[in-house]
Amino acid sequence: MKRRTMGLITVGVLSLGILAGCGNSEKKESSNPGEIKVWVQFSDETAEGKAWQEVVENFNKENEGKYKATTEYIPRSGSGGGYEDKVNAAVSTNSLPDVITLDGPNTAAYAQSKVIAPLDEYLEDADMDDVLDSIKQQGTYDGKMYAFGFSESNVGIYYNKKMFKEAGISEAEIPTLEKPWTWSEFNQIAEKLQKKYDGPVFDMQIANKDEMLTYGYTPFVWSNGGNVVNEDGKKAEGYFDSKETIEAFEFIQNLVKKDYVPISPIEKGFETEKYPMYLSGSWTMADLEENYKDVDYGILPYPVSDKTKKLVSPTGSWQLGMTTSTKEKEASAEFIKFATNTESSKIISLSNSVLPIRNSTIELIKDDVNDGMKMLMEQNQISGQARPVVVAYPQVSRAFQQAIQDISYFEENPDVSKVLKARTKEMQQAIDNSIK
């Protein structure tokens, strides 16, 4: 399967200038009451598209004569354009469909700009207690739920079982969700591996310079009691430059300093057994099982701060939102609830190697997935945390990514506190500009 990290979670290239202040737009009455149009960001020829079509067909069959959903497939480009470009153009011309998909971190921008409407009044029968907390976190803005995730994601540390064994790491030393490695213990393991293989041992995807850095590295900050912004997403100062965040970034910097983590990793280094560890998500499993069948691997939980011992893992994926311009609110809401119910989540997860959004779905499929997927599903249940819901998320994420790059080239930028102070100012300025 093609590498999907950014296909699932890249920050949308929203034109916030276009979105800001667009307000509600009038939409002509549908000639067929109960008929809605849905825009999605993938192709109908992909596994995701085929699973989606099954969900839509099930909805139409169950609601025949009452509601009907049709899908327009608008694939995203590698840089995130295509789909978002069309959404932005539709906002400016008042031609949005009834339901759109949106990436998790874009909830606040779409909600503040009144592109999507709150869903709370329609969710009383949606069994929200069954929905993962991370899904509710990423879809909530200003106390209201504006978007409902139809898939979830999570990241762990892939490890090569043969290479671990050759380095003298026993089964008893392998961490579990109940007892993950602390940062100190992780450093000890990395040192042991480095001595055996005489070079870097952990591909953290630090060379990506994209959303993977924010997505994959925020758990280190959270585990140490730090944060990127405050709860309402309006304050970076005192959070991204806090003592706790600085300590988390120093942990990451030290992995590079000690040459455990390569700044310029070998492409497919884990898959070709050059590195014994790799930070990645569920999408990598399909690639390994299809193209690197000889690699005997497992997936480990995130290491935890020595100070808090708190396990945190990253979550976030694509959601469904009801546009403010729809005249078919009931049909739109019913479709969103159907596409996120237990059975629909099962179809989407099993067909597309993505994580379920409901506890009931996890119970339903846990015996039908491999150990790696099972581990990520369980880690998500007990420790998943969504990225900050902040209107200026693209700028905040970019500052986070640049801070990682700054500290990675530690000879030029050795002082983590100075780096974070400078990047915090950038974040705060972007946040202040977004809420004026």
What's this model, at a glance?
With 436 residues, this protein is of the alpha/beta class.
Outline the fold blueprint.
Layout: H1 5-9, H2 16-19, E1 35-40, H3 47-62, E2 68-73, H4 83-92, E3 99-103, H5 107-112, H6 133-138, E4 140-141, E5 144-145, E6 148-149, E7 155-160, H7 161-166, H8 183-197, E8 202-203, H9 211-223, H10 243-257, E9 277-281, H11 283-291, E10 297-300, E11 313-315, E12 318-322, H12 329-339, H13 342-352, H14 359-365, H15 371-383, E13 384-386, H16 393-408, H17 416-434
Helix pairs in contact: 3-13, 9-10, 13-14, 16-17
Q: Mind explaining what this structure looks like?
A:
The structure is a single chain. This protein has a five-stranded mixed sheet. It has a four-stranded mixed sheet with strand order 8-9-7-10. A two-stranded antiparallel sheet has the order 4-5. Residues 1-30 have low confidence and may be disordered. The chain has helices spanning 5-9, 16-19, 47-62, 83-92, 107-112, 133-138, 161-166, 183-197, 211-223, 243-257, 283-291, 329-339, 342-352, 359-365, 371-383, 393-408, 416-434; strands spanning 35-40, 68-73, 99-103, 140-141, 144-145, 148-149, 155-160, 202-203, 277-281, 297-300, 313-315, 318-322, 384-386. The chain is globular. With 436 residues, it is an alpha/beta fold. α3 packs antiparallel against α13, α13 packs across α14 (359-365) and α16 (393-408) packs antiparallel against α17. The longest helix has 19 residues, at 416-434. It folds into two domains: 34-153 and 316-386, 3-Layer(aba) Sandwich (D-Maltodextrin-Binding Protein, domain 2); 155-314 and 391-435, 3-Layer(aba) Sandwich (D-Maltodextrin-Binding Protein, domain 2), CATH 3.40.190.10. Helix content is 42%, strand content 12%.
